[in-house]
Amino acid sequence: MARGSRDYGSILLGSASERGSRQRIRIQTLLTVFIVVANLIGAILAIALSAVGIPQPSVFQADLWWVNFIAVPVYVVVAFVVGTALGTVVVVRDLRWAIRDQKPTAKDARRAQRAPWRLVLIQGVLWGVATVMFTIMYGVLDPDLIPKTFFVVGLSGFVVVAVSYLLIEFALRPVAAEVITAGYGRRKRSGVRSRSIVSWIVGSAIPIVGILLVVFFGAFREDTSKLDLFVGVTVLAVIALSTGLLLTVLISVSVTAPIRSVRNGMKRVQRGEISDDDLVVYDGTELGDLQVGFNGMVTGLRERERVRDLFGRHVGRDVAAAALQRDPELGGSERIVAVVFVDVIGSTTLAAGRTPTEVVEILNRFFAVIVGAVERRQGLVNKFEGDAVLAIFGAPIDLDDPAGAALAAAREIAAGLAERVPDLSAGIGVSYGRVVAGNVGAIERFEYTVIGDAVNESARLSELAKRDPTRPLASERAVEAAGSEARRWERQEATTLRGRTEETVVFAALVSELSDR
What we know:
single chain; alpha+beta; Alpha-Beta Plaits; 2 domains; eight-stranded mixed beta sheet; 13% strand; A/G_cyclase; Adenylate cyclase 2; transmembrane; HAMP_dom; adenylate cyclase activity
């Protein structure tokens, strides 16, 4: 699969090919922005609850000025500085291997997996300290503010922790991907369920508890009006809707991103794009298993295509396609085919005068000319017999004019060898007739081939053609069976070929018609 800008499910996280300082700056920037945003949400939530959601008892009393305008602002600034500093230390320490672009060790992997929790713990501790400290400060001056302060700051801190964890986990996807790729990713089997429970607690459970507290306070405080009660319940309901929506969006993004990457991968597979690049596995939950499973499937398809390609190279594409479409079996059927036999002249002399490496290189160029010409005419190179080649036209794929295709291929081979393999010359014979085509051998090991007089005749014609290797020879039957190709051949002689009792009328390609095109 081609690497892209959404390897980690979002364009914000860049590509899997991005490494080093650029990736580190991107992650650090996202972490800082996300933590600031989460805390800003918590601060807005605390102010809204204190001022409007639970207006009574009021925190805006004259003797509370130093808490509202000195203690709270000072703590917010100190908490921001301390949180940023500690967060940077945690990231640099736990992700040092990623910053240096090194492969993680088992210890590095454990630290990287704990990094989100450490960052969230810092936020939780800071908000926990704020909850205790502000509850005490407000409670000392007005004991009635104790439950309100505890609930307001505690709820806001819980929201910050939940939102921070989801955002931090999102920002650290590239790190999680490297850990999982290194083999240390212990995926959490209940991760999606845990995220859903957190969303329910923050978006539903805590706001409902707040509504109950507002009603409870209103029932036992004489100075609470129906309007105060209505406003308080309304604000808490709006907060429940807002936080619930926010967390639902964040969780849905974390769930749909891996699914979307698998879906996009499936589309590429449907288009036939099966490269060596797998999907980036960056999710540590059950969704990561989905990505791993998809990669396993693609690996299997890739291996299947590789075997299919090798199979096609060994036996021919058409034979391979036919074998894959039905169960292979021994035996064959009669077919009318054209056969081309090409035999090298002086192969012993060639081997004696050159090194084995040079001989193989020349033979490979020789075979490449033949294979190209045969396949362009929809024929099958059936066998490489040492320094000879047997090609078939009309089996296993039917052709409208197998004889014409074989004769044209023979002319192209003769011209191609003269031009591109001047070190070698070969006799080329073409025959036409009835053969048996099918699988020959044992059920454990067999090959597709053709057996019949036409095969023997083409081999004998190739021997005869060695007298003038620039002109391929063909039997009269092959020329008569051909279409327009027949006019490019002329009669030479009638002779009895070696090993045969009947005379064969031999035709040769016209010199003016020899072409490799």
